[in-house]
Amino acid sequence: MKRKWLVYGIGFALLLLLPQLFSAQYYKVLFNQIGINIIMVIGLNIVLGYTGQVSLATAAFFGIGAYVSALLTTRLGVSFWVALPLSGLVAATFGVGLGIPSLRVKGHYLAMITIGFGEIVRLIMINYKTLTNGPNGITNIPVPQLFGYTLDRPERFYYLVLTVVALVMITTARLEVSKIGRALKAIRDSSTAAECMGINTTYYKVLAFTISAFWMGIAGSLYAHLMCYISPDLFVFSESVKILIMLFIGGIGTVWGPVVGSVLLTLLPEWLRFMQGYYMAIYGLGVLIMMIFMRGGIIGGLSYIRERILRRQR
Amino acid sequence: MLLQIIVNGLAMGCIYTLVALGIILIYNATQAINFSQGEFVMMGAYLAIGFLGAWKLPYIYILILVVLCMAVFGMVFERIAYYPLRKADPLTVIISTLGVSIFLKNMALIVWGPLPLFFGQPFKGRMVDLGFVTLNPQHLLIISVTVTLIVLLYIFFEKTPAGRIVLATSQDAEAAKLMGIRTSKVVMVVFMIGSALGAVAGILLAPIFFANTEMGYLVGMKAFAGAIIGGFGKIEGAIVGCLFLGIVEILTASFISSVYRDAFAFLVLIVVLMIKPQGFFGEKVSEKV
């Protein structure tokens, strides 16, 4: 137990030093990107990994969060610290809305509804020009200020992202072992059986969608203020797919899977960039190969190997 | 005018139907959804343009050539993206087909470049004038090819031994295996048919739309939506759902708002599913604990 905390402590200290270890500005932006992806993958894990409800609307919630935060700060002059939780709450409200169909519709039908919802949100972003400024997007999104300290550089922004990621991870880890987490997993394994055991499946399914959308909205707000610019072409279906693939490669339904998946799949395309046009094609092939040889993702594969070693020792 | 619009909608509906039939045949045989189906459409269109540029053959030869190529491709696709994962969770197969979809889209980008390509018009831009209405012959071609293919598929499934084997596998793979059917071969054939159907949709669509790397995504999603509206897994459901979607789409574009055309299509999907969660033809299946 003690050793576990020591490992966590050292790990966290290393994370604090991370922006100092790399001098390239490019890597510092990338670290922020990884953090934001982790938040979204964890959000998806709550709904898909723990509750077993297929959601492909990640990009929509991410976009809603980003737009709410960007519009509040640029149009109404609201402070970032107010806009951040508000963007999560607005996304969560939409999450309740999307959670309600999940009560009547399952599996592929639900997947299609979430895809449709994402597409509708994207089309509104492009066409409702008076609100969203259409395809040009929103520019000059202000950088957050903290105690007179401007988070205008990626290495400063990194600490904000790191804090939120830590918060999301701790609450999700607590959630998983709580009554709520057990209820969600019971619904995943069998919705009918869970209902027979007296679990209010209606409440918990909608709750899972709500929590998930909240974190995705928060991620969107962070992204908007990191980049200072957003446009509708960021919030497309392929973005949802990217997050889904991160979850599967890392290990679905695990605590560390989202972290491993996000780190690896955010860095991998960057490392493959020297291949120019081919890098996305290689990425697609890589996903296929990973799925064939490591079905439980990296975390699933590691725990399988660990079990084999433990069995041999016995 | 209205008739013209409806024929236009039916033609789009037919394109979605062809793609949706591929998705459903594969789904019935494997319980997995092929998210690369839209990319098959894109490949069909690009291959047609490629062959046309290379040999200047008539449209019909191009069609046959591309269908043959794509049938072989479907076989390879099955061996790589489905076969190793046949015992895994259906969600895993979705991820592997998404991986292939990313691969195909980006390979097309490398080979054919980012600019949309124009196929040319097989009918030289002539219109069919029936006196009371003027129609685009390409729309009529789309509708007639789709009807022919559906009839052929019907005859294949209902009247030929090979088709019955495929049908038996898609109804109950385990039982089919016990009856001595080599289901893995059957699944391969189903992927060949699915891939060929997608390619036909692509070739038919190429003269109306410009071929581009994004075309597969929207067509694939609409086909999926149409199949869902009809009741997923049902062939008659897919036909009705896709035609319905095609007409709703064109009516929205003509009378309400052309920019929100796709949004309305998906809105209709959500509304239909909220009223009838199993779609038009879907059966209510009670869940086993």
List keywords for this structure.
heterodimer, A: 314 residues, mainly alpha, two-stranded antiparallel ribbon, 2 strands, B: 289 residues, ABC transporter involved in vitamin B12 uptake, BtuC, 11 helices, 73% helix
Describe the structure.
The complex is a heterodimer of chains A (314) and B (289). Chain A is mainly α and 314 residues long. Chain A has a domain of 212 residues. Chain A is 77% helix and 1% strand. Chain A has a two-stranded antiparallel sheet with strand order 1-2. The longest helix of chain A has 27 residues. The radius of gyration of chain A is 20 Å and the shape is globular. The two termini of chain A are 23 Å apart. The model of chain A has no long low-confidence stretch (mean pLDDT 87). Chain B is mainly α. Chain B has 11 helices and 2 strands. Chain B has a two-stranded antiparallel ribbon with strand order 1-2. Chain B is globular. Classes of the chains: A mainly alpha (314), B mainly alpha (289). At the A-B interface, helix 6, helix 10, helix 12 and helix 14 of A face helix 4, helix 9 and helix 11 of B.
Give a brief rundown of this model:
The complex is a heterodimer of chains A (314) and B (289). In chain A, 77% of the residues lie in helices and 1% in strands.
SSE layout:
The complex is a heterodimer of chains A (314) and B (289).
Chain A: H1 2-21, H2 25-50, H3 58-75, H4 80-99, H5 101-104, H6 107-127, H7 129-132, E1 145-146, E2 149-150, H8 154-177, H9 179-189, H10 191-196, H11 201-227, H12 237-250, H13 257-271, H14 279-293, H15 297-313
Antiparallel strand pairs in A: 1-2
Helix pairs in contact in A: 1-8, 2-8, 2-11, 2-12, 2-13, 3-4, 3-6, 3-11, 4-11, 8-9, 9-11, 12-13, 12-15
Chain B: H1 2-30, H2 37-55, H3 59-82, H4 90-112, E1 128-129, E2 134-135, H5 137-159, H6 161-171, H7 173-178, H8 183-205, H9 215-230, H10 235-256, H11 261-275
Antiparallel strand pairs in B: 1-2
